[in-house]
Amino acid sequence: MATASLPIRQEPRISAGLPRVGEFMRWSVDHKIIGVQYMVVALSFFFIGGILAMLMRWELLTPDVDFFGDGAVYNSAMTMHGTIMIFLWVIPMIGAMGNYVVPLQIGARDMAFPWLNAFAFWIIPPAGILMLLGWLVGPAEAGWTSYPPLSLLGHDGQLLWAVSLHLLGISSILGAINFIVTILNMRPEGMPLFRMPLLCWAVLATALIIVLATPFLAGALTLLILDMVAGTSFFIAAQGGDVLLWQNVFWFYSHPAVYIMVLPSMGIISEVLSVHSRKPVFGYRMIALSSMSIALVGFTVWAHHMFTSLTPELRIPFMITSMIIAVPTGIKIFSWLATIWGGKIHFTSAMNFALGFLSLFLIGGLTGVIVGSVPVDIHLHDTYFVVSHFHFTLYGGGVMGLFAGVYHWWPKITGRMLNEGLGRWHFWLTFIGFLWTFLPQQIAGMMGMPRRVATYDPSLLIYNQLSSLGAFVLGASALFFFYNLGWSLARGRVAGGNPWRALTLEWATTSPPPPLNFYEDPVPYPNPYGYGSDAAREYLDEQQRRFPAALEAPTDEGSTSASLATQPAGTSAGSSAGTSAGQQQ
Predict the structure, then answer these.
(1) Hey, CA dihedral for 344, 348, 354, 357, is it positive or negative?
(2) pTM score, two decimals?
(3) Is 71 exposed, middle or buried (0-12, 13-18, 19+ CB in 10 A)?
(4) What is the pLDDT of residues 168-178, one digit of tens each?
(5) In whole angstroms, what is the distance from residue 67 CA to residue 59 CA?
(6) Which of 151, 233, 416, 426 would disulfide-bridge 241, Cβ 3.0–4.6 Å?
């Protein structure tokens, strides 16, 4: 285990705050700037993907095709929505959280390969633009479904879609290699693996999945491209190909990809629940090892997406593995509940989203067990019940966790607090809008409504109208989120080095951190979740003296904001429920 080489002790100066907008448009190898670049790109595509979702739900307000004018156009919009949300929103946002926080948590001055880190990011914007251009190439009548080989081959837009995914996969693999090397080799003395923050364990498990699984997606896309441009017939049954080959290779990546999108949020939840309930994490080792277990078992369950395609004798083994993978997830759920039990819970926006994650992801897990059962899945396969289950897992789980992470680490990233009042509006509209959207879809799915179609039986009208109204509420919630980010940058209170009085290393420096993160070699606290002890209080009080809220870096004009420096470190403007840092420990 190598010790991170850091600069000699310096006196903390004013935290520099966020760089100017132009700083994010240039090449940089600083992991913090790269993390913010990931975030800006991810949030931009989140907006685009959300607009597509609103258009789809507008179409489904009636049983007939009236908005898109053609079912194939609707299908293309659906595929773009799903692809953008997964590959250009959730996964890059995970990259944002990981790039900014993980090196700080392990006391490193940067990622192991800074240049490679920047290169992995700069693949994403052109790949995203290429994907959008592919959608505009048309003709939409060629159709994109979840199984591209079943649509007409040779479609230029589909070709660009496949090339774009290839590029995004390369970016993921390069980033994952960087995370593995960084976490395993750049921890400081005093931080063995089992004293490492749980977010780092989750990112490590995620990176291993990416390195092992993403090449299979690349292989599938390569065969698809060859079928379209080179005249091969890997997937064309009429010419001797095998359509099930695509399904197998596609799902061998795509089911582990679910954990690529959820495991980092699980790591975020472990951090947020402990800090905002002032309780040590219950079952630290079991949570850490369950992340690695999910990474391993996740490769054995892909064929439960193919129960209607498999021969009967192959269904039972995959049903069993689909049930087994619920065990490490259950370990996490019960450990998180034990963590907050009896704790001094502070209902900050970060905590609200973490608790929302617990409830919504639990529903996603339970419905996963349902569709993992062969007799039930035969009936529910390719219905809106599966759409609902998928969103409970990835939005109710992955995205809610990412929102919790943004509210938790935004003060560290920007040096400013978010508005807790706006945060509560964002949370409750998200939570209510989400349930309003996807619970009716479960009923419609059980009644037989198929997914990927723009028309449906009029008897299902009420469920679709309810779902669409809920989707509009869910979409409106994002406006509060984006407004809160802008409000914080313009008017947010100075955060100080450690507004939450947390024990992990990212809080043992200014907010934002200096170019090399720390002013001296970082010394990790022996227990990153050891809240409640006198030693922890003394450690946190010393941090408060070194990095108070009044510590602010000089601007180019040499001025400071004295009025902001007088605000309590742990509150947000406009929030009546904020708690000061001194009250939290």
Answers:
(1) positive
(2) 0.89
(3) middle
(4) 999 999 999 99
(5) 5
(6) 233
Position 294, amino acid: I
Domains plus CATH for the chain?
22-196 (no CATH), 344-585 (1.20.210.10)
Q: Are 109 and 6 in contact (CB under 8 A)?
A: yes
Query: What is the tens place of the pLDDT at every residue in 93-131?
Result: 999 999 999 999 999 999 999 999 999 999 999 999 999
Tokens of 121: 């990011």
d(CA 439, CA 463): 9
User: How far, in Å, are 291, 295, 320, 331 from residue 327 at the CA level?
Assistant: 11, 13, 12, 6
Closest CA to 12 of 546, 486, 473: 546
Task: Report the C-alpha gap between 504 and 530 in whole angstroms.
Answer: 10
Determine how many CB atoms are found less than 10 A away from the CB of residue 115.
Answer: 10
pLDDT tens for residues 165-217? Answer: 999 999 999 999 999 999 999 999 889 999 999 999 999 999 999 999 999 99
- How far apart (Å, rounded) are the C-alpha atoms in residues 261 and 268? 12
Identity of the amino acid at 15: S
Give the span between the Cα atoms of 53 and 135, in whole angstroms: 15
Instruction: Look up residue 351 and give its two tokens.
Output: 């905590």
Would you state the structure tokens that stand for residue 530, as one six-digit string? 């050891």
Q: Which two three-digit tokens encode residue 311?
A: 């021969």
Mean per-residue pLDDT, 528-551: 83
| pLDDT at residue 158, as a whole number | 81
- Cβ within 8 Å of residue 543, ≥6 positions away: 497, 498, 501, 507, 508
Q: How far is residue 6's CA from residue 516's CA, in Å, rounded to a whole number?
A: 7
How far from 177 is each of 90, 171, 250, 541, CA to CA, in Å? 19, 10, 22, 37
Q: Which residues contact 31 (CB under 8 A, 6 or more apart)?
A: 99, 100, 103, 110, 111, 114, 117
Comparing 64-73, 373-382, 488-497, the range with the smallest average pLDDT is: 64-73
Nearest of 380, 403, 392, 281 to residue 336 by alpha carbon: 281
- Whether the per-residue pLDDT at 292 is higher than 70: the answer is yes
Assess contact for 83 and 92: CB atoms under 8 A.
no
